[in-house]
Amino acid sequence: MGLPVVVLRFFNVYGPRLDRLDVGRVFTIFMGQLLRGADLTVVGDGTQTRCFTYVSDAVEAMVVAGLKPEANGEVINVGTEVETSILEFARLMIKLYGSNKSGLKLVSQEQIYGPSYEDIPRRVPDTTKMRTLLGVAPKVSLEQGLKLTIDWFENAQTHK
User: Fold this and answer.
1) How many CB atoms lie within 10 A of CB 67?
2) Which residues of the chain fall short of a pLDDT of 70?
3) HSE value, Cβ hemisphere, 13 Å, CA-based, for 126
4) What digits encode the pLDDT tens for the residues 49-70?
5) Inter-CA distances, 18 with 13, 45, 75, 117, 146, Å
6) What's the N-to-C CA distance of the chain in angstroms?
7) Residue 99 contacts residue 156 (beta carbons within 8 Å)
8) Is the alpha carbon torsion for 15, 20, 25, 31 positive or negative?
9) Count of helices and strands (H, E) across the chain
10) Taking CA 103 as the corner, what is the angle to CA 94 and CA 121, rounded to the nearest 5 degrees?
11) How far apart are the C-alpha atoms of 36 and 21, rounded to whole Å?
12) I need a surface site. Which of 25, 94, 100, 106 has the fewest CB within 10 A?
């Protein structure tokens, strides 16, 4: 008898306590720039798309996957299929933060990553198994989740 295993593939999970500011993910890079009043640096033309998943939606899928015997041996994408361009994402963060100091700055991929870097233009998960096998669907919209996360980071900075 083997060990029951479920593989979960998470797509752009974000939320409070995510990462250090200015490091790693697009959210924390943009958040650090917002808090400093700097322009948000969008790499390339900003048309590349991602699907952003709020942490509570990811946690729900993880808990259900661990408790549902039917999930054993499965590989399940965890995320939302709502596709958002990086440019839209940056504009929404600026809007929700409410700062009129930050704008947008497009920078070339070569400037940031060097000449050999190739970005993935579109990253959208097939969440069929998450929805049918686990019975889980994302509940938190991008706007709701970003507002909660931005508020958390703002409060964390003022209480340092």
Assistant:
1) 9
2) 1, 99, 160
3) 4
4) 999 999 999 999 999 999 999 9
5) 9, 26, 24, 25, 12
6) 51
7) no
8) positive
9) 6, 8
10) 80
11) 11
12) 100
Instruction: Take residue 34 and report the two structure tokens written for it.
Output: 């917002």
pTM of the model: 0.91
* Residue 62 identity: M
Read off the tokens for 56. 């509570």
Radius of gyration of the chain (CA): 17
Dihedral pair phi/psi, residue 32, rounded to 5°: -60, -40
What is the token pair recorded at 13? 């999970």
Six token digits for residue 28? 């924390």
| Tokens read off for 131 | 């929805």
Residue 62's closest CA among 45, 48, 76, 42?
A: 76
